[in-house]
Amino acid sequence: MKFAGGFEQTAGFTASLSLPGFIAYAVAVIELAGGILSLIGLGTRIVSVLIAIIMLGAIFTVGLKKGFIGGYELDAALLAMAPSLAFTGSGAYSAEGLQKKHSRTAS
Question: Of 28, 73, 33, which is closest to residue 54 (Cα–Cα)?
Fold first, then answer.
């Protein structure tokens, strides 16, 4: 969504919330690169903590004003999932899990 209407529009929206414009770029990078890394299974714990921080920011800056339904229900769901991934990490068949398995057998 951040890239659909042109990224300048997203940066402008972020500025309208009295937040520095660079935050929009940081959030976009974390969401895009972090999503890809999570799918692969690399850096899952770090990415999930960053996503939780982003979701808290989204809920408190925009979501609460709109209400739960149609406002922050997706943000709340992602916020609920993020700590689970932060505590458990990626699974055995993730890139990290396979790397750990390979390093144990090589030793």
Answer: 28
For the full predicted model, state whether its pTM sits above 0.85: no
Gap between the Cα atoms of 56 and 73, Å rounded: 12
What is the residue whose two structure tokens read 């992602």?
Answer: 78
Tens digits of residue pLDDT in 33-78: 999 999 999 999 999 999 999 999 989 998 888 888 887 899 999 9
- Between the alpha carbon of residue 10 and those of residues 6, 37, 78, 92, the distances in Å are 7, 23, 20, 37
Which residue carries 């300048």 as its tokens?
8
Report which secondary-structure segment, H or E, holds 103. helix 95-106
Which pair of structure tokens corresponds to residue 14? 């972020």
Cβ atoms of 66 and 89 within 8 Å: the answer is: no
